[in-house]
Amino acid sequence: NLVAVYERLSEQVRVTLHTQVGNARGLHDVQMEVRAFCDSAHNMRERVPPLDFISLEGSLAKMLDSLQAAKRNALEPANPGVQVSFRVAGVCGQAGRPRVEINKNYLEHVLDIRGPYELTDVFKCSARTIRWRAVEYGLRGPGLAPFLNEELPDGSLARRWVSSGKWVRSAISGNAVALETVIASVLATFPGYGRCKVDGALRAQGIRVPRNCLIAAIQRLIHWCIICHAFVDGKMCLVTGAHFNNNNCADTVLELFKHAISVHG
């Protein structure tokens, strides 16, 4: 399909011109692909309407001119006072892949539309690389340190991990009665909700509660604090294990499961 190949090639040229600045070899490879496509298009000229073929020739000529200009700039020697940030393993004598350069103006424009993870397919690099370039250009600020070293009274250092700031613990977390009231209203509307769905319902109301507080509040709302756990064989409809517990922890259910295995195999 000539149209599909042209769209893929035009996207590749656009990305290369923005991400392979200074990489003459990479620009040359894409330029050769465009020329090969030109030859293929000329061989299929009879199948393409004349006006469409003229437009195709003009677009391919612009691609070749842009790639040639970028390659010419990459091959020109840099000024002594200007530091070249693009490094290739064969030039700098260091191992590893070449540094990916991204046009600052283009990056500033697209970051207002999409995030780094959504731009990985555009720049053909990781989201972390895009984030680093944005910080280097001053388009984004550096993130918070994941931990802080605090000096204790005895002179030793203790590492304290810092929250990323994505969510703030709600004040209702410390009020057991108020938290149980809110959870009870959720369960009254949706009796079949478990912990995850109750947590989602609270978040929809703007309430963020730690997991341990949420589990404890749900267990306190269980009538008589008695929970029945049971395992049933799906083929024989045999109850392999059943027990009443005062909690709904995973370890409790696992112990019952192990006991059922020891009895029934």
Q: How far is the first residue's CA from the last residue's CA?
A: 60 Å
Secondary-structure content class: mainly alpha
Overall strand count: 4
Shape: elongated
The residue fraction in helices comes out at 40-55%
Share of β-strand residues: 5-15%
User: How do the helices and strands follow one another from N- to C-terminus?
Assistant: HHHHHHHEEHHHEEH
> How many structural domains in the coordinates?
4
Determine Rg (CA atoms, Å).
31 Å
Low-confidence stretches: 79-92
Strands of the widest sheet, in order across it, are 1-2
How many helical stretches? 11
Oligomeric nature of the chains: single chain
What is the residue-mean pLDDT, rounded to a whole number?
82
Major sheet attributes: 2 strands, antiparallel
Report on this model:
With 265 residues, the protein is mainly alpha-helical. The chain has helices spanning 2-19, 24-43, 50-75, 89-92, 104-111, 120-123, 127-136, 176-189, 195-204, 211-221, 250-264, and strands at 147-151, 157-161, 227-232, 239-245. The chain has a two-stranded antiparallel sheet. It has a two-stranded antiparallel ribbon with strand order 3-4. Helix 8 packs across helix 10 (211-221). The protein is elongated. Residues 79-92 have low confidence and may be disordered. This is Integrase core domain-containing protein. It holds the Pfam family rva_4. Residues 216-265 form the Integrase core domain.
